[in-house]
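Continuing from yesterday's entry. The apo prediction looked reasonable, so today I'm repeating it with flavin mononucleotide included to see how the binding region is handled. Same sequence as before; SMILES copied from the compound registry.
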Amino acid sequence: MADEHRYPDEQREAVYRVIAERRDVRQGFRPDPVPADVLRRVLAAAHQAPSVGLSQPWDFIVITDRARREQVAALARRHRDEFAAGLPGARARAFDQLKIESILDTPVNIAVTCDRTRGGRHTLGRHVQPQTADFSSVLAVANLWLAARAEGLGAGWVSFFDERELATALGLPGHLGVIAYLCLGYVTGFAPEPELATAGWARRRPVSWAVHAEEFGRRGLPGEEPVDPLADVIAGIDAAALPDEAAMAAARERQDRMTKPRGSLGVLEEVSVRLAGLAGTCPAPLPEPACVAIFAADHGVHAQGVSPWPQEVTAQMVANFLAGGAVVNAFAAQAGAEVTVVDVGVAAALDPVPGLLPRKIAPGTADFTAGPAMTRDQATAALIAGAEVARDLVAAGNRCLVTGDMGIANTTASAALICVFTGADPAEATGRGTGIDAATYARKVDVVCRGLARHRPDPADPVGVLAAFGGFEHAALAGFILGAAALRVPVILDGIIAGAAALAAAALAPDVTAACFAGHRSVEPGHALALHQLGLTPLVDLGLRLGEGTGALLALPLIQSAARALRDVATFDSAGVAEKQ
Ligand SMILES: Cc1cc2nc3c(=O)[nH]c(=O)nc-3n(C[C@H](O)[C@H](O)[C@H](O)COP(=O)(O)O)c2cc1C
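Holo prediction written out below.
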């Protein structure tokens, strides 16, 4: 019998229960001491953890002394302040509300260490992966955490430390690393959900996103049909039934009762109504924190001489975004938004740095005048990559997504896409991009004409259209926009590249436009055509033609103000203000 060793139901349930109900606890600690026998049981559970080569690299320092805890708390406070100083506006405000340690609120602290040398050079399994020593100590922490929950003891893990600094403060011998610093005590209660989820800082990912059948990317739980991620996102938009008419009606009604003349907020009233329709509640949650995702890629059509800029500028600007030196960084800092760069197809290899998501489909597309820019599989992979970036950024706590792009020659690809989806003539849809002379402009229009003649694209087949002309950033942005809509999170569109991508997204799922807000109108003529077809009103019209996400970021405070007004402004009845006769 396959299950002859299975625990009886009640015991099995208890195991799953302790796993589900273990929490990282930071608040509600009681001062009662923890009896020594309870601590001994919890430590014995920790000590039974699996370890590489049975090396048991852990030790547990049990700390109750107040002066020592104060010293450790001071270290954590310093790192907390440093972390807070680096956060964009809305994130910093949210972080300010979070409790990240309870070093002094708990009667016992336990430092879990790792001796990475224990057992000598022949420790089985550690020879190729020295980090397995640390993993082993982490497993001891997991055991301790679960046993503590079963004992009714709250435990909180604090990692706001420099490891060597903490080791020194604890007086540890130099060969020991510190793996975890835990705060333990009895509590007033255990929260049903992670505190960071309740606080809106981050969300849980569903288990179906995390399980892959045979190959990474083939998502699906055992025994269930594999998930087609793109179809899944589109189905998510359909299931959301966007926009929610009742929420929109409630928002309109509230706008009319707010202490201001009816309609006096102009376009912003409609923005607030659309936000409510997207969220399905009135008022909608504030669209913050916000994150701009700059999708970067190179284009084979650059070889046709459609841009005066060398292709290397794509990679160079990516480096500039990551170093914080571009206009998008300045605007993001001003608006309090985070900047993330996604490499979906930059021709050069990029070094890993914080803030860069490596999602390269290929090092640049092919020249669409000579053949398809990419394969259908690549277009699909880029769409999925974009949708997953949206999902991950929302899981990380963002409530507003902003599109950004970088890719020398990407206005040419955008013009072609816009021609296909709007039926416009290449001469109407093609613009001067970064600034080109008459001869280059004529060549650019001719390139778009030749591409259209060659591929005879079918606008009813958006994946095929993206494959024919798109940049990887267009396909990924289309996925990003779809991903935002499926999660009912607003996405602010930047200029022509986002406009072209949004047309592809709308061809895949027409209701996606309910999540889209046109940040601005660029001077690229194709952009106005795209916005018209999408039925979106640009919020800002400042003659911008930079890309990167700059125009969308300028609109971010407008959209946030619209949401805040609907949420915060008093109504005539609540404020006791007389209405117009
Ligand atoms: C390696 C590690 C380090 C952590 N560091 C901190 C920390 O410094 N401060 C904090 O408040 N929580 C910290 N946590 C707790 C996580 O935020 C928490 O586990 C997560 O939000 C999930 O919540 P749950 O443990 O209640 O399920 C840490 C967790 C782990 C696994």
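Comparison notes:
- The first helix runs from residue 9 to 21.
- The first strand starts at residue 58 and ends at 63.
Will overlay with the apo model tomorrow.
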